[in-house]
Write a structure and sequence with these properties.
It is a single chain. The chain is of the alpha/beta class. It is globular and about 65 Å long. Bound molecules: zinc ion (ZN). Zinc ion binds next to helix 3. Belongs to the BPG-independent phosphoglycerate mutase family. A-PGAM subfamily. This is Cofactor-independent phosphoglycerate mutase. It catalyses: (2R)-2-phosphoglycerate = (2R)-3-phosphoglycerate.
Length: 414
Amino acid sequence: MKHLIILGDGMSDHKVARLGGKTLLEYASTPAFDRFASEGRSGMLHTIPSGLHPGSEVANATILGYDLTEVYEGRGPLEAASMGYEMTADDMAMRCNILTLTSDGLIQNHHGGHLTTDEGRDIIKMLDGRLGSDRVKFLPGVQYRHLLVIKGGDKRIVTTPPHDNPGKEWRNLLVRPIDENDTALPGKMSPRETADLINSLILRSQELLAAHPLNKRHEEQGRPVANSIWPWSQGYRPSMLTLQQMYPDVRTGAVITAVDLINGIGHYAGLRSVHVEGATGLVDTNYEGKCLAALEALRTDDFVFLHIEAADEAGHDGDLELKIRAIEYLDRRVVGPIMRELSMWDEPVAVALLPDHPTPVEERVHRAEPVPFTIWHKGIEPDDVLAYSEAACAKGSYGTLHLMEFMHEFMKIK
Ligand SMILES: [Zn+2]
């Protein structure tokens, strides 16, 4: 038996008054989801370990069977993997935003005036040339999202996500040790030395960026200037077993996603990353291309993780119509065609459909609430669930599963 997970990022939701008290999954026209649920077995799944934030990286890695309380190392190491940077045991990697600070000392935004990838890369290359050393390395990523690697850095420091803190005084949010009494481990800087180094990089980046020609252009165009770096979400190389190591039936696997963090998880999970032309992470994404890529991968691989971001983005935008459309596109352009195709295959494939977390349109943030899931394969004995929705799946035969239980149940299907 091969295995395919179809993940609609953020697609579950709350009841919405404008939809007559229905959730979006209940309201949207989803004949393929409903057929999938009525021919499969359903349940609810808690995807966020207590104490961790409901981030997509946390939820997706949990769904893949990882105990995040053991292996979570922040976004930095996942993004390093997605950029093709192989971390060594000595490295501490951090997400490094380029952002805008106001002249009176506040965080104005987390994106430096929506930098293009070329603009962001120019800045990061300049910073690496001026501030890079044997210890400090800046690596270019996408738009305003880059990577800072510190050799011998100690992760026992407090860093702050800038997108959660617009309007706050940045000096109060500089890096500090979790505990001033923590001393240096063998071969590493102490947490205090690590914090001081990062803070000095932040201050020196501000001096260098104040004079950068790009910011003159931004000022002329009336765009916010990109006048500081902001490193956060630090961690070491994750000690994750690959899926091949955890599940011997998985000889090879693939991940299909437009999102860097998910590609990073896939890298550590031992999945090859399949690039799909026109995969954007938005509702204009190439659904047919992703669907074909998943079917193509299933011809050679034992395990495929197909991640579709669009519903989450629409949820963050608070755009009800767009999120409904994202759900209907996933139904019509992915789940329907995949079910039709796999029904005709001799090779049996177990398919799971689920979101990673709700991103309710009326709240516009991730919630750590259980999500509905359905598992289907040819010949499965269906339960009584007839539609794919939060309320319907809650009555499914799997009941409510917790964290890694989902992957264990899914991979049990032989
Ligand atoms: Zn997500």
